[in-house]
Each structure stands twice: as structure tokens, then as C-alpha cells.
User: Fold these one by one.
Assistant:
Number 1:
Amino acid sequence: MVRLITHNLLACHVKGCTSNNFPLKLQDVQIALREAEFNEDFLRGFIPRLEWGALVQAAREVGDDSLPAEVPEMLDDEFLKQLHHVLLEIHIDEGSMVCPNCKHVYPISSGIPNMLLAEHEIG
Amino acid sequence: MSRPELQAPPEIYYGDSEAIKYTNNTRIQQIQAEMTYRALELLNLPPDEPAFLLDIGCGSGLSGEILDEEGYLWTGVDIAPSMLEVALEREVEGDLFLQDIGQGFGFRPGSFDGAISPRPSSISVIQWLLNAETSHPTSSPPHRLTRFFTALHSALRNPSRAVLQFYPTSDDQVQLITSIAQKAGFGGGVVVDYPNSNKARKVYLCLFVGGGGAAQVPQGLDGEAAEEAGARAKFEKRRQREVRKERSGKKKAAKGKEWILKKKDLYRRRGKEDVPRDSKYTGRKRKTVF
Ligand SMILES: [Zn+2]
């Protein structure tokens, strides 16, 4: 399963692909929703690690436009619940992640993204 | 006795039936559990803070289930698709990636609060890096180790640690591995538990990013024959502490019924309560949106 929390941490690692290699574009995705345990401390601690714009974009690519364009100054309960849902409860089952720079396609099949590179793509 | 990792790389060694057999083996489950608790101990994470961990060579999720139980969020990478499929079926909480760590990986800087690889020798990731070879010059073990340690160092937060179990066959090998890790920026060193016992001896590469939150490499466990029983007793104690913490509400809020049922099932599968293990994993229904 790929959740958006992990997608938000993932850049392309093809040889020489070092700029504009994030976020990987989500294409032709099928998603599943699975309830996850709400952990407010975790979310508050994790927000600084997120690339917010990339998260908002990825959420839209999987059909969720509930997140605000900027992180709100007041992290109220409603916002944190929404963030929890987007980060941890949306699972990408099928589809692909495409590098915006080199266009490498990382296919996702049965919930598992294939991150293997061909010999000439290894850095 | 030839070790499985010397016969074939793990993605070949673990076919579908091997992966299921491996995962359902009670002895393997117990060994993986012990190694995972020890790796977590060596990670030395700040207490009572949630953490996001990387499980390297996560396999079928035996260690991941313990991370779930302990309340950590995690991502796992593995080279063996059949093992990852078993992990999916067992509904571990972490995200799973098919990845050859010898190629490096693309996790952004500072993504993880720590990394573990508590593995028996058959699927030790360092051994995987050392043994995999093709004719291509960039596939040599030093190249693979360099890519792995560089990517790992970057993916970890500062300060943090990575604890990787390994099975070195010579001092030269230890030297090669630690020198490449150092070049990638890691501090730390090798921790040996029960150095005087052939059976219980365990070696961990305990790598620090930015000091790893401590000045010194942790001490290995010592003692002679009591090792395994002793270690287990220790984990049991820790487990009891965790239970007490949970009961007193310090660790986690009350859990939903579904969650508790799932955990019960988990204990049953691991043979904790004398309930016969069920070889079929019942899949929770998922709501498909598109
Ligand atoms: Zn790329």
C-alpha cells in the first residue's frame, strides 16, 4: 500500500535525476480507504516534514480536495482529522508514479510500488 | 552447512511457498520478534514520542507487526515480491515497497526517525549487498554498499540511528562495511551481543546520524548460556510494562473494537494464546473508491 504520507517523502532516484524530481505524479490510480488510528501527537510532529504543496497536489490527484492550500496557523481538531485521513487512510492500490523530470514510471500493482531501476538508471 | 543467502539472492530463494512457510514458522516468528525488540532498544528513540521508521528488508512483515504493536508508523522495503505479498495479506499497517537497496532509494532528506533491519542471516540486507553480483561494474558490493549507505544517511533525521543486523564472515568484511558507512557520513559502530556464545551471538551495525543522540556506541549484551531465555524474559518484562502503560492510558487512547480484534488475531497467529493458528488470513473488506 502506498499512503500519501510515504508518497510525500518519495523523490525519483534515477541516475542524474536530481532536480524537479519531486513529487512523483500519481496517474491512473485506484484507491482504497482503510481506517487508521488517529494520533494527534504524531501528526503535529510530522507536519514540518511534509512538503505541503506536494501533499495538496497528490490528494487532488487521488480525488480528495479537502486540504487547504497552506498549513493553517491554528491546527484545530477538524484540520488534524482531515490531515489524518489524507495522510494515513487513503491507500493507492493500483496506478503509477511518474517522475516530473525524467518521466520514469514507477508502477504500483496490488498495492506495491515497484521501485527497481534498470542497470543504466542506477546512480 | 551452507547459508541460504549464499545459495541464491533472496528474491529467488523466497518463492511463494517459501515465503508462506517462512512466515508461518513459529520459531522464525519468535526469533524475528526478539531481534526486532533488540533493534528498537538500540535505536534509542526518545520515549513517548511517535516515530516514523524505515524497516529495511521488511519481508513478510514479522517485524512490522511488532512496530504496529508498539505504536510506530513505518515504511518497509524488500527485494522479494513473494514476501511483500504475504505482508500485504497479513495486513500490516506500513507501506511496502519493492526495492533493491543496492540501487539506493529516493526518500527525501530527513524522512525517518530511525531505520531497523532485524533479520536472520537468510535475509540479512548487508549480506544481500555483499553477495549480489552481476558483470556490470556498478554492481560490485562496494558500489552497492555506497549507494545504500548514502541514501540511508540522507533519508534519516539528525540526530537518529540505524540498527542493521548482520553476519560478517571476517574482520575484513566488517572493515569494508564500516568504512563505507563512515564515508557516507555515519558515526557509530558494531555492537556484539553475547560474544562468547556460538548460538546466541548477534552482531548489529549501529549507525549514528549526527551523534545518534549519544556519545558512545551502546554496549552489547553479555552472559553465557542463559542468553536466549534471559533475552526473552527481558522482552516479556518490557511487554508487561507496555501493557501497564497502555492500561494507565499513558501510551495510547482507547482502541476501537476492530483494532482490538485485529491485535488479538495477531497474538493468536504468533502463538501467544494457545489457540491453533489459522493459516488463512481473513481480508478486511476495503472500500474501493474508483
Ligand atoms: Zn526522475
Number 2:
Amino acid sequence: MLNSTPKELIERAGGAINPAKTCQPIGAMYAALGIHKCLPHSHGSQGCCAYHRSHLTRHFREPVMASTSSFTEGASVFGGGANVKTAVNNVFTIYNPDVMAIHTTCLSETIGDDLPTYIKATEVPEGKVVIHANTPSYVGSHITGFSNMTKAMVSYLAEASEENKKEQANIIPGFVNPGDMREIKRLAKHMGVKSIMFPDTSGVLDSPITGQFMMYPKGGARVEDIRDSGNSRITLALGSYASADAAYHLERKCKVRAITLKTPIGIKATDDFLMTLRSNFVKEIPYDLEEERGQLVDIMTDTHYHFYDKKVAVFGDPDIVAATAEFLLSLGMRPVHVLTGTPGGVTGASAGGFEREVKEMLDQSGVQANIKAGGDLFLLHQWIKNEPVDLLIGNTYGKYIARAEDLPFVRLGFPILDRSMHPYLPIVGYKGAMRLLELIGNALLDRVDRDASDEDFELVM
Amino acid sequence: MEEMEVVLLTGLPIEERRDFILTKGKQKRQLKCDADSVAGSVSQRACVYCGARVVLNPVTDAVHLVHGPIGCASYTWDIRGSLSSGADLYRNSFSTDLKEHDIIFGGEKKLARAIDELVRKYRPKLVFVYSTCIVGVIGDDLEAVCKAASGKHGIEVIPVQSSGFIGNKSAGYRAACDALMRLIEPGEKKYVIKSKNINYLGDFNLAGEAWIIKRYLSRMGVDINVVFTGDSSYAALKKAAGASLNIIQCAGSMIYLASRMEENYGIPYMNVSFVGIEDTSNSLRNIAKAFNDPEMAYKAEQLIEHETALVKPAIQRYREKLEGKKAAVYVGGGFKAVSLIKQFKEIGIDVVMIGTQTGRPEDYRRIGDLVDDGTVILDDANPAELEKFMLEKGADLLVGGVKERPLAYKLGIAFIDHNHNRKHPLSGFIGAVNFAEEVYATVCSPVWNYI
Ligand code: SF4
Ligand code: SF4
């Protein structure tokens, strides 16, 4: 389908062709779903909300609940204050969540709705909470929206209520799947570290079937835990784009030390995550985890020759892409095209240096690459036409390029609309790295089998 | 006024929703519909842009440029399964990706640049420029930009006025039809109207459905001039005014276009439905009748007889397995809802709950006539309502769209997509078998035994 993509690169200034990002509110909606008994609320026209819910549903294959202010022409002229009031009232009477998390949309941002004032002027039932984040989609991307809603959790909820910090760590997991969040919690637990994770969509968007529809599934970060995050000793922000802002805000607000790490994809980033927990809580790495790591390295050595020097194009969300690129390097692969749709240095991401960070990493390994923040898949495709690769890694939208260029393709990131295990099976931690190895290895070797001539077709590989 | 039967809305205390739901009983009040959703509700409704995009998206060789921030374009990137026999430009996602700067200073320049770049790259004959909510607010003059671009490049650049907050999906259908009317305006050129040449409106060629109908009609000696808009192209649409009859399948989105074409070009129109054996047969007969052509009528009868004989045994087999099961239906348009009720009857299934997003009063009247007493009828349902009534009515199956699928599954209820994510053609005689098979595959799947 992309056969008409020209090889020749021309500077473009008229918007995006086949985007590698989407808009802020969906990220905010996803983050809000990571609070227990929270109903995300979209302050804008009903259409945006419908799209965001559908899109999340396609990726997670779970019901996604969110309410909308249902703007009409009147609201767009006179402002949406009245809609907020009615919405808050209706949401608590009908759907009875503990938390209502309001995010804005392009429309309400453009007409200049002042949410804090509206919320203050609205009666919220006893014991219930309304939080909000500004999420104009003409700034940043869905990752920015996720970051902004996570930050709102800190602004509205976190409190330093105790004199001494508790022996516990906050973990902000970033825009990853619920299975990943589960795995990160498992690692912390194995380390013997008490952790508070927020947002936490495990148990919400990977909930089991029970024959009942639960508007609010069992999972999600508890409000009291998010409050208590102000008493923790440290915050681990996993992924600078999605998580750092909230962590630094918490540091300012409650003096909880913020540490930004890579999303723990691959061996090095997982090591860093565990070592940070260790050095801060003086825990030994338990044997189980050492064993897992040993197994991973064993697999890497068993198979490294399959990966050696393979050229890879990887795209998606900045935190995921940066960490994945690091893992690819540790396998001896060459990520020669590295692209995210999220623009660099956006408001809301205190460390927006995607291009710089990836470049440093690749330089150290002596890999020359095209690196871009704020790019689109049209550009990525052009890069690949100019310098072909052996493998493509990215979200579902990569399949057009994979087909046009006949590339092995590993689906990773958000959204994945055409496969189904990703919400459950992690890619983080040592186990997640094993899974990635399997995905990548199978993609490459299936291709070798497919392309082998009869005489080269081998049983043992 | 007669007593009406009001549904007990325990657990659904929201007063304003009451008028949108009713249970078929002795007498009923008029169901409220086609109104805006209530602020603070988990509405399933989509926006104007969504409606417009649904209708225009299958125009395969057009550039579909979404003027707005990135999201509106991202979410509509190739999510509809409209098949093409040729061009695939429509499967790309083009957005002006408006940034803060554009919001403050206006997006017209960027839009003009985007059109220039895309035209240079893809050399299309036609560009649709969709306006999104924000464009309505910042006041970009779409009309002017499109006109200028059109003159500059010598192609058609048509604005689609689909700012989202001025209504719901139906308003979007209208915006799309307005855009189509501009496109098909023949201007000076007079088309020779061929006598057995028809336009087929409201089929988006999902899973190749329009192709099935095309084959049936050609066996009756009728040519399809152009399909609105499944697998259509610039050149084909341009000839639209040369048809002698318009048949409309998805009335919700197309009746407006049909009546405008009648007004402007004197092309009469009639409703058809190719959902289910009964409706398909009747539709083919009615087309023959419209041409007042005994030969054609004879061919239609032959076709109906032949095709029915082919599919009947299979349908009968499924019917035996499905008899007595109950279905809930929640779809976009009222017309489809009506056909589904009949189609379910063909396979022995009763519809116990039925709702639409954009049904019109007359659709609800027809639904009311078709369903049994006790069936719940609702407009723009939210998930809590769907859950409540499906459980209460003991539905075994839900027909819905993307958001309803996991909801049904969670309740242990089977599901089929009768929307844009359908995987098999559900039109015509063959579609009736596919439908029965899909229903059977999900309702009788062993997975339900493990819940
Ligand atoms: S902004 Fe308007 S046009 Fe875009 S998705 Fe939202 S409601 Fe629809
Ligand atoms: S209007 Fe803005 S918030 Fe709504 S879908 Fe479009 S980009 Fe997203």
C-alpha cells in the first residue's frame, strides 16, 4: 500500500503523513484508568471521548469507561463551565466512582476553559475526589498527556503527612502495558522493597473474565497509597518522557527524591532498576532474580550469532524506543533508524532530549543512525528505502512498511491493534527481555526459513 | 393519552435518560432520539467528523486530509474495512498536525502548505479537507484555502464542514453528502442517462459487500454506475448524475444525498436492504419493479430462487442449532437495526433488546412494529444500560461495535461486529450464510463453558 512513498527526502512543513503519535487526552485517559475506582472524564465534544475509548479498547481488548462533557455549540461559545458542573454531578450520581479525573481536549483548551476555577465552584460529594490535567493535543503527544495526568495525581493527592520518610519507593511505570506494571511490581517485591506504583493499570485493563461487568475492576493505584507517596523515600521515574515530570513535581512538593531511569526493557535497564533499589534500600539481590538474569544471559549467549550486526528500524514512544535501542545494542544489533512521533523538549517532559540520549548511546557503540523526535512513519519509510534494514520494530502501524519492504516485523508499544497478548505478557525485566528475544529471534529465523532455497533449508539453526 | 409502559430505571437514576428508553408494550410514547448526549454520561456516540469520515473514507483515490491536531487523524487511520479494487491512497493518514503556534495564529497557511506538499507527492485528482472542532473555533477559512489550492493545482479540493460539536454522527453524514454534491455537480457537461444504470448509495464495501451486490444486479441486467462510496473513485463519482435510479442501503447516511440528487438531477430513489434473505430478495424485486421491466423481474426471480436454494440448507443447519437464542442489538443506524431483526428471525433468534446511535423517529416506529412485546428499545445507550438490559433479558449474543465487544465478553455473552470491523461480507444471500455462521461460531463456542 505504501508503494508510492518516494525515496527522495524533501523537507516538509505541512503536517504529518502516517503519524507515529497520537493526542494527549488518550494518554491522560490511560493514566487515569490506573487509579482504583476512577472514571476518566473528557472535557470536550463527545467525539474525542468515543475515539479515545475505542482506540484503547482495540489495544487492550477490554471495556474502557470514560465520560464526556458532550460539548455543544453553546459550550464552545460560552465556555464549558456549566458542562463541568452538570458532568460532576451526573458522574457521581450515576457512576459513583471514588475519583473523577478530568482532562481537557483541544476544544476546551482553545476556548480557554479554566478548569481549576470550574472545579472549585462545583460541589463534590463527601469523600470523593476530582482531579484534572490540561492536555491540549496541539502540544506534545499521548505520552505528554500520560505525564500530565500522572503529575496531576501528585498535585492533587500526594501529601508529606509524616515527619520521617518511610522505607518505601514510589514507582512511576510510564506508558507501558498492565503486564509490564505487574512485572515491575513483582521485581520490587522480590527485592523486598515496599513500593507504591501509580498509575497502575494492572487489574484494570488486564482483568479476568468473571461473567460480570465491573465498571471499576479490582486493580489500580489506591487513592490512599498515592497520598502516601509523599512519605516515600524515593521515586523511581521509569522513562523520562512519561514519568519524570510527576517525580520531580513530587520532589518539589513533598521532598521525595526523584530518580529517573530508563524503562526497564532489556538487561542493562533492568540491572539499573534493581541496582537502584538495592543501593537505596540496602537489599541483596535475591537468588531468584539472579537466576533469572543468569538465564537471560545464557539465552543471549546461545543465540547471539542470530542477532549479530542485524540492522533494525525501531519506532514508537520515546521511553520505550530508547530502552529498546539499548537492548538491541546489547545483542550486537544495529538500530540504524530510531524514531518517535513525540516531539522533543515538549512542555511536560523535563527531560525531552530523546535525540541526544539515543545518539550518545549509539555513538558509544559506534553505530551511525538516523534519529528523530517528532517524526512520522512516512519519514521512517523513506529512511528505510535509503538504507534498508533486516528488522522493523514498532506498533501496529509498522505493518504497512513491513509489507511494502518485505521486512520481518516485531510488534511493540502502543497501539497494537492486530495481535492480542501484549497487555498480559511483559517486555520489561529479565523475563520481558526473554520474551523480546523470542519475538525478535522468531521473526528473523522465520524469515531465514521462508527465504531459504531447498538446499539451504536447515533443520537445526 | 393512553397509559404508557415505562421501564424501571433502578440503578439508572439519571432523569434525562428516561425518555431515551422504552419497552415495547401495549402502547408507547415516542422515543426521544437524535438529541445530544447528557454531560457526564458514558455516551457511545461519535462526532460529526467521525460521521463524515465514515461516508467519504472509501473514496479510494482521494487524499483525505484532516485539518486539526493529530488525534482526530490518528484515530481514523485505516480503521474501516472498506476494500478497494484499485487505488489505496485513502488508507494513509494525512493530518495538518496543528501545533500551539497554529492555534494562536491560525492554521490556514499550514493547511495550504500541506495541500501543496501532498498534491506534489501523490498527484491526486481530489482532496477532501476535513475540519475538526478546533478549526471551527480558531476560525480558519477552509472554503477560501481550498478554493485557492484548487485553482493553483487544477484539481478539486473540497472542504468537509465537519466540526465535531455542532451535532452528532448524523450531522457528519450530512456534511459528507454536501461535499459529495459539490463533487458530482456536472456543471456544463450533460450526461447521457443510460436507462439501466443505477447508483448504489450507502455501501462502504466492507469486506467486499458492494461487489456482491454488483454481481447480483449485473445478472439482472442492471449496471452500477457508482457506489457511494465503497470502492469509488474520483472518475466514477464524477459520473454520478448520469444514473437513472438511486438505491439506498444505509438510509441513515445517504437519504439526504439521494433527495438532493432527486432535486437537482431528477434521479428518483428507493430504499433497499441487502441484509438477510428476505430483504435482499424484496430489494431485488423492487428494483426490477422500479424499471417496470418484466424481463428483469423474471431474471430477479430466477436469481432469488437459485441463490436461496444454494444457501437455504446451510442456514437451516445453523437455525437448528440457534433456535430459541436471544440477541441484543446495538448498532449505528436505525435502518440496519430493522434489517437485523428480520435476519435474526431467519435463523430462529429473537431480538430482546435493540438500540441505535442515530436512529430517527421513523426507524424506531418500524422497530416497534417488528419486535415482540417486552423488547427493550433504546437510543444512544451507555454501557450500564446495555449491561442491565442484556442481563435482564437473558441475551445470548450482542451485535455491536468496537466498544461493545469486550463488554459483552466480560458478561459471558457472545458478540458479532456488524460494523466496520466485520471480517466477512454480510450482504446478500452469501452474506446471510456468513452471518449465520458468525453467529453460530460465537454463540456456540466452547469457550463459554469455562467462565
Ligand atoms: S475534536 Fe471534534 S472532530 Fe476531532 S474527534 Fe473530537 S469531536 Fe471529533
Ligand atoms: S480534537 Fe484534540 S483531543 Fe480530540 S481527538 Fe482530536 S486531537 Fe484528540
